[in-house]
Amino acid sequence: MIQVYVTGGTFDKEYNYISGSLFFRDTHLPSMFERGRCTLDVNIKTLMMIDSMEMMEEDREIIAYNCQRCPYDKILITHGTDKVVETAQFLAGRNIEGKTIVLTGAMIPYAFGTSSDGFFNLGSALAFVQTLQPGVYVSMNGRYFHWDNVVKNKKTGFFEELNN
Amino acid sequence: MIQVYVTGGTFDKEYNYISGSLFFRDTHLPSMFERGRCTLDVNIKTLMMIDSMEMMEEDREIIAYNCQRCPYDKILITHGTDKVVETAQFLAGRNIEGKTIVLTGAMIPYAFGTSSDGFFNLGSALAFVQTLQPGVYVSMNGRYFHWDNVVKNKKTGFFEELNN
Amino acid sequence: MIQVYVTGGTFDKEYNYISGSLFFRDTHLPSMFERGRCTLDVNIKTLMMIDSMEMMEEDREIIAYNCQRCPYDKILITHGTDKVVETAQFLAGRNIEGKTIVLTGAMIPYAFGTSSDGFFNLGSALAFVQTLQPGVYVSMNGRYFHWDNVVKNKKTGFFEELNN
Amino acid sequence: MIQVYVTGGTFDKEYNYISGSLFFRDTHLPSMFERGRCTLDVNIKTLMMIDSMEMMEEDREIIAYNCQRCPYDKILITHGTDKVVETAQFLAGRNIEGKTIVLTGAMIPYAFGTSSDGFFNLGSALAFVQTLQPGVYVSMNGRYFHWDNVVKNKKTGFFEELNN
């Protein structure tokens, strides 16, 4: 069984055609797993639906608490990309033993159709969570990064290792 | 560096609006990696563009030859799903040492937009090829299978382990 | 009120991922009108779901019968493009008085996402049926054609006037 | 020949994945006509690329000037929906003789894939501009409205007649 925690982020944003701004409705994760014809046992739980720029200490506590209590040792978390590294660091600080935690996100909302990277990122993160050693990782751009060796390049939107 | 070999399959099929049938044009792999915002070094080579139902011994020889000669130890192969298990078995029979070979495909052409599983499968296969031990694998439905323990269920279109 | 008769055609075809061939399930018309945010009173009725190559005299009788009995004077018909001209001629031969009948179709199935012309064609046909004088027309390629002055160019897939 | 004037609006907006906001790049109109397999002679000219909330007197002057100088009598204008009625009124005030002017827009950007109404609206507007009497019209929701009898319902996003 793989535990999936939804926290929001660009991944799950939608376009509000009245206001012209982005907002959250339900997560797209279940329909994405279906479209991906995924046959793994996946348990999806929406912890929150927020922009990661608005994620605060108490939100990260909720995520950490759920990761600790989770009976499964493979955890995939969808998250806004702006602050995903901070959440990865927070989770690593909790020393959650024996669990592989992979955080991923998207640069373009899944709801925006054939331009979004979200579906690809979900496929990657799902594979990494099954194969990586216990620890906390960020998965983006087809790669995985250790929580203590990753930064989002704010200009390009790509994730990079610190020492490269 | 990750070597990607394109062999065709549903993954890369397109709709011919004159004849109403499916056909191959160029592979979509480069644009898929771009859309996935992939920052890995990926070398894409189209070995053939065929339906796996038409794949013959000599075609598999070409694939095996390229896998053997390939200077990189991570190889991702796109392939028609109907005969992907046969090709995996063929490659395993060649005892290609020290290389991780992951074959993947799609049930619905990538060109058919937001219904296709191809983009998700590519993300998964790309992650598996980076993390699995040397050997030959098939990646579908969010999972990976060892070449000698997988079968495509022709009725459902899902891949299953032999002994489950 | 605008009457919409669905007869099938490429417009409504879908991809069967088990057999790899195209087939019909339910029509996409209702969801297309919703996505187009259409506020016209539209009555949608599926008369048949067939490829126009398989359309026979008795099928055209059903279409003609429904057009004659229809209480509304604006009728939009979705149809396979290969034989849409033949059906237009058949309907014109019935001298249905005082009704504007517009037939349209698609070269690429609506279900194939952002490559299909179907959504555009529906928008055009819907506008033409509201504004053209009584008579029988074919609407394709952003244009309308009188039933007795149109032919499908089988090589290019475009509709053309006979005398141009 | 049909003259198409692009002025921006939601129709042509795109998602900026760095800032998370919407912006304008090039218009999608040419690729939309191609995808619609349109065979009409269409002349596309981008007058401006702005949100209609930012459209000012001088912008409307540019649009009116171009409509007056245009050698063709069928003019289609893409426009933001929030202020499209105001621009229609402005153009009607100029008494441009003998020309059919149809303004249209979209509630969801064309770039957002299979959720956008833009492609349908373009098909409708293109048909209306070919068939309506000279005058100024707004085309949305599958319908056309006279410039002096239309209002956008800000709550629902639908266009309505004033006296209904």
UniProtKB/TrEMBL annotation, chains A, B, C, D:
Pfam families: Asparaginase. Transmembrane segments: none annotated. It comes from the Bacteria. Substrate binds at residues 52, 81-82. InterPro entries: Asp/glu_Ase-like_sf, Asparaginase/glutaminase-like, L-asparaginase_N, L-asparaginase_N_sf. Residues 2-156 form the L-asparaginase N-terminal domain. The active site is at 10 (o-isoaspartyl threonine intermediate). GO terms for molecular function: asparaginase activity. This is Asparaginase. It comes from Phaeodactylibacter xiamenensis.
